[in-house]
Design a protein that fits this description.
Blueprint: E1 6-15, E2 20-30, E3 33-44, H1 46-59, E4 66-71, H2 74-89, H3 103-113, E5 117-122, H4 130-148
Parallel strand pairs: 1-4, 4-5
Antiparallel strand pairs: 1-2, 2-3
Length: 149
């Protein structure tokens, strides 16, 4: 995967209380072009915000791309790259025969991700990773804006 044609996406979700008010954010970078997006919901969970950050970033792409997506969520990275195959095979049930949590978002992410060539990366949260720190800040600012309304 040549880096000159790769669009990088960095995502994060945040929640104050779980459930509680939550925010999501993404930084999309292609060469020198950078776009930051974010949003918030009044009552949600951290995992939903982590998923929504990736979903919303993929919705901003106008055509299939070669992507490097970096998240600090093992839930998102492992879910989309490993667990989802079995969930789909098992009718959206976990190995314990329970309904998959956040199935609506997993289905949407699966559909959007299928339009791109994606390499998934995980980074430890709050560890000084510049872009991860930035999207964490943006997600929290989105919550702040929601709470000020």
């Amino acid at each position: 995967m040549s880096t000159e044609h790769v669009t990088e996406i960095f995502t994060d979700g945040a929640c104050r209380g779980n459930p509680g008010p939550g925010g999501w954010a993404a930084l999309l970078r292609h060469g020198q072009h950078i776009k930051e997006i974010s949003g918030a919901q009044a009552m949600t969970t951290n995992n939903r915000m982590e998923l929504l950050a990736v979903i919303e970033s993929l919705k901003h792409l106008k055509r299939g791309c070669v992507l490097a997506i970096t998240t600090d969520s093992q839930y998102v990275k492992n879910g989309i790259s490993e667990w989802i195959k079995n969930w789909k095979r098992n009718g959206w049930k976990t190995a314990a025969k329970k309904p998959v949590k956040n199935e609506d978002l997993w289905r949407e992410l699966d559909e959007l991700a299928s339009q791109h060539q994606i390499r998934w990366h995980w980074v430890k949260g709050h560890s000084g990773h510049e872009e991860n720190e930035r999207v964490d800040q943006l997600a929290n600012e989105a919550i702040d804006r929601l709470l000020e309304e």
